[in-house]
Automatic annotation (TrEMBL):
Species: Naasia aerilata
Protein name (Swiss-Prot/TrEMBL): HTH marR-type domain-containing protein
Signal peptide residues on this chain, from the entry's feature table: none
Xref: Pfam families: MarR_2 (PF12802)
Keywords of this entry: DNA-binding, Transcription, Transcription regulation
Domain HTH marR-type: 22-81
Stored InterPro entries: HTH-GbsR_regulator (IPR052362), HTH_MarR-typ (IPR000835), WH-like_DNA-bd_sf (IPR036388), WH_DNA-bd_sf (IPR036390)
Length: 158
């Protein structure tokens, strides 16, 4: 499969930016290739061809992206080939906002850590503040998602 230069440039630029922000490089490339595809779905072989990467690289990137809920996996009808697609119901970038429960475990660890550190320690105050921050994120993420959906719907209707 050959892509036009514009899509190649987009995938390179967008995945580089995501990686600069801390997203793993190979999953970023794969995610941006799916995003740039007209059907929002590609086979493992197509991803290998488009990105010039190995089957193992596709597999590793997909494990990560599926775990985050950014991508779904199915098979090509009538074959055993894997087909990867972006979710129909919610764009991949909203997955983080929709999964605010991911902060529960982090908060529990931080709360327990704060209990283990002496009360008068500056470290305990820092750990407690971190726990408070993650509780704040957990409360705000669903609200941010609601705000985004309302704004997106307003943009589509306007």
């Amino acid at each position: 499969m050959t892509w036009d230069a514009g899509r190649q440039e987009f995938v390179a630029a967008a995945s580089t930016e995501l990686a600069a922000q801390g997203f793993p490089a190979m999953p970023a490339r794969v995610l941006m290739a799916l995003t740039a595809s007209d059907e929002a779905r590609l086979t493992a072989e197509e991803l290998q061809s488009i990105l010039g990467i190995s089957a193992a690289a596709v597999s590793g990137a997909m494990r990560y992206l599926i775990l985050l809920g950014f991508v779904r996996q199915t098979t090509v009808p009538g074959s055993r080939r894997h087909l990867y697609l972006l979710p129909d119901t919610s764009p991949w970038y909203t997955a983080t906002l929709a999964r605010s429960s991911i902060y529960e475990h982090t908060t529990a660890i931080l709360d327990r850590g704060a209990e283990l550190i002496p009360e008068d320690s500056p470290a305990r105050a820092r750990v407690a503040e971190m726990a408070g921050f993650f509780r704040f994120l957990q409360r705000r993420m669903p609200l941010l998602l609601d705000e985004w959906i309302a704004e997106r719907d307003g943009l589509a209707g306007g």
